[in-house]
């Protein structure tokens, strides 16, 4: 298509409204971060080790990565609407199960089942690409993923406040009601955006080599993986940093965890405003450079002997800002390499991105001790951000080779 089709809110015969797509990404983002301020309290409740409890983050991300491999091809075959509604229904049931879990094994089982909500992140992007061309897709994705920016800003704060006022169970109650609300909204508003019945799942699998053989797909996917990997590394270590190194309460830990989201929201806004004008590659470069500059400055200050929560978390705003500029644009790039495989590319790209994030979050959590301070985590985030810049520069180099 060359232009955005007509959209009517709460009309299942037209594509979903922008509000619906924002909330779809928002509920997925909320489920990742809302419980993080209460991680220490949950460890005590289930009488387990912090490393085991942290699987609730890293294991969830790993499960999300696996699910995204299949969600894309399945939605290309059976349609976006059906997959979204089924996935959200499973998510609601899993949230209720996690809420009433009495053992760490049961909790982690339902926590992994909650990862079905990953379809919301994958398919919201694919739906955008279904209805608009590449540069316009980057712009619209920038607005859509503001849900993934604003929710992590307030999500940990809400989680920390609920945990202090009641206990960690209140966070899951909140998530459950959010899931029910978004499920109802999608049922009444989300029209199908895939024309026809698509291709069979087996045929979709056969198209994987077409993507895997594309250097541009790998460049965009790795840029997304390394760029977001810095953020997931922060999530893996931030709870330890906030509570053990800086001694922050659950509420203020939630506030600190929301710092990158401030920058991400701003970055998403500028992506929506300038991606069409400047192009996706240039925007990705600008975003990567901003991230490197912010994290590099933070690491230098810490290396000089100054450690303070305002410095550590304050400079993480630049991490969010850089990702807000980079991720919508490289995402639009990777799903536009082969437009007829938008859902498959979105799923595979998301799997690479989230899978790398799972590994980095677990690695970051085990990297820190009170003796090391925050510097190992800062250097890790800086290193992978530099690799994100290298990846998008590779895409530009490759495009010049084939022209």
What report would you give on this structure?
This protein has 403 residues and is mainly α. The model has no long low-confidence stretch (mean pLDDT 83). The protein has one domain: MFS general substrate transporter like domains (Growth Hormone, Chain: A, Up-down Bundle), CATH 1.20.1250.20. It has 19 helices and no strands. Helix 15 runs antiparallel to helix 16.
Judging from the principal axes of the Cα atoms, what is the shape?
globular
Our count of domains comes out at 1
CATH class: Mainly Alpha
The biggest beta sheet is recorded as: none
CATH structural architecture: Up-down Bundle
Helix percent reads over 70%
Name given to the CATH homologous superfamily: MFS general substrate transporter like domains
Mean pLDDT: 83
Strand content: under 5%
For the terminal residues, how far apart are their CA atoms? 25 Å
């Amino acid at each position: 298509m060359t232009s955005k089709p007509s959209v009517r809110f709460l009309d299942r015969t037209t594509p979903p409204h922008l509000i619906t797509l924002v909330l779809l990404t928002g509920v997925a983002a909320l489920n990742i971060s809302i419980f993080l301020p209460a991680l220490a309290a949950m460890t005590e409740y289930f009488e387990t080790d912090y490393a085991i409890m942290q699987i609730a983050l890293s294991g969830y991300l790993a499960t999300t990565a696996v699910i995204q491999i299949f969600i894309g091809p399945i939605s290309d075959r059976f349609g976006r609407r059906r997959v979204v509604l089924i996935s959200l229904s499973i998510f609601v049931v899993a949230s209720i199960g996690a809420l009433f879990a009495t053992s760490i094994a049961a909790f982690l089982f339902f926590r992994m089942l909650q990862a079905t909500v990953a379809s919301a992140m994958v398919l919201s992007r694919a739906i955008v690409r279904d209805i608009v061309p590449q540069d316009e897709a980057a712009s619209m994705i920038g607005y859509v993923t503001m849900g993934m920016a604003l929710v992590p800003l307030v999500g940990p704060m809400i989680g920390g406040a609920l945990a202090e006022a009641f206990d960690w169970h209140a966070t899951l109650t909140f998530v459950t009601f959010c899931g029910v609300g978004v499920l109802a909204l999608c049922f009444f508003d989300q029209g199908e955006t895939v024309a026809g019945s698509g291709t069979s799942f087996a045929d979709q699998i056969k198209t994987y080599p077409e993507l895997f053989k594309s250097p541009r797909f790998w460049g965009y996917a790795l840029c997304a993986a390394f760029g977001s990997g810095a953020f997931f590394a922060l999530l893996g270590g931030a709870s330890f940093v906030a509570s053990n190194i800086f001694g922050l309460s659950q509420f203020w830990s939630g506030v600190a965890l929301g710092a990158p989201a401030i920058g991400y929201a701003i970055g998403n806004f500028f992506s929506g405003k300038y991606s069409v004008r400047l192009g996706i590659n240039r925007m990705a470069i600008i975003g990567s450079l901003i991230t490197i500059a912010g994290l590099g400055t933070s690491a230098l200050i810490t290396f000089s002997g100054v450690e303070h929560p305002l410095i550590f978390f304050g400079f993480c705003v630049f991490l969010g800002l850089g990702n807000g500029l980079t991720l919508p644009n490289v995402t639009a790039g990777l799903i536009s390499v082969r437009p007829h495989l938008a859902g498959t590319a979105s799923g595979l790209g998301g799997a690479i991105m989230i899978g790398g994030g799972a590994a980095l979050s677990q690695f970051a959590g085990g990297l820190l001790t009170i003796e090391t301070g925050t510097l190992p985590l800062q250097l890790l985030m800086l290193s992978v951000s530099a690799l994100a810049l290298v990846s998008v520069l590779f895409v530009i180099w490759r495009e010049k080779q084939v022209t």
